[in-house]
Specification:
Elements: H1 2-10, H2 13-28
Length: about 30
Amino acid sequence: PWDYYKVIQTIPGDQAYMTKAESKCALWK
């Protein structure tokens, strides 16, 4: 989970929301 959070921190807030959803879907897959 740490790497996951690190990636979100690097991405801007606006993109973080989209990336969070996409990353979550990818992880759940």
